[in-house]
Design the sequence.
């Protein structure tokens, strides 16, 4: 079995911070730059991708537990990808909450 290397597209803006939020040409958002719609779509797309990674890892875990999975390393890789994506998403959420709290503490 041949294992292909991971390839990441060139990222800019918020997608550079979280590759899970990157937009492929087929899923580009038709919104004006800097609009709330674009940001919201990026967040939802990132969460959908995270859910897809965890679903894939869960499915492979079931196959491994039932003995239907021939290559256990497929599960290990999927579980690691889901774990890293989850950790990155939580870190980004924490930074966003910290930034919001800092803005709320500002005196006007």
Sequence:
């Amino acid at each position: 079995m041949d294992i292909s290397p991971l390839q990441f597209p060139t990222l800019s803006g918020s997608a550079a911070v979280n590759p899970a939020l990157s937009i492929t040409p087929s899923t580009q958002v038709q919104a004006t730059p800097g609009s709330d719609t674009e940001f919201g779509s990026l967040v939802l797309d990132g969460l959908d991708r995270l859910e897809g990674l965890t679903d894939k890892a869960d499915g492979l875990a079931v196959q491994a537990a039932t003995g239907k999975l021939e290559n256990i390393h497929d599960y290990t890789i999927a579980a690691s990808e889901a774990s890293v994506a989850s950790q990155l998403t939580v870190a980004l959420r924490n930074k966003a909450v910290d930034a919001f709290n800092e803005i709320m503490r500002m005196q006007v």
Q: What stands out?
A: Residues 36-105 form one domain. The helical segments are 14-17, 36-66, 72-105. The CA atoms of residues 19 and 94 lie 17 Å apart.
